[in-house]
Amino acid sequence: MKRASDKTGESRQSIEVLQQRYQSLDRRRIQAETNLENARKELERLQREAREKYGTDDIAQLRSKLEQMKSDNEDKRRSYQSDLDRIESELTDIETRYERAGSPGEPS
Prior knowledge:
By secondary structure, this protein is mainly α. It folds into 2 domains: about 15-55, no CATH class; about 60-100. Helix content is about 80%, strand content about 0%. It is built from 3 helices and no strands. It has helices spanning about 5-10, 15-55, 60-100.
């Protein structure tokens, strides 16, 4: 692994430069720890939300539930389309019978 000093070609750094590097690295460490803690809290929040909404926070079970929900939605969509097709067909049939019978007031 190359160090920063290797990249610059400088082999000897002053104590001030070393302290600055240390402080920079320490800030990065603190930021990384903060990010990690925030990520843990967000994970816990999402797990809690999943347990409340779906009864589990297990990824495999959630995926299975999602697939079941998609399947249920597709069944409902298919049924809705079928109902609309049936209603449209019945309406067309009524309109056709009405036209064959003639409009009221028209000579037949």
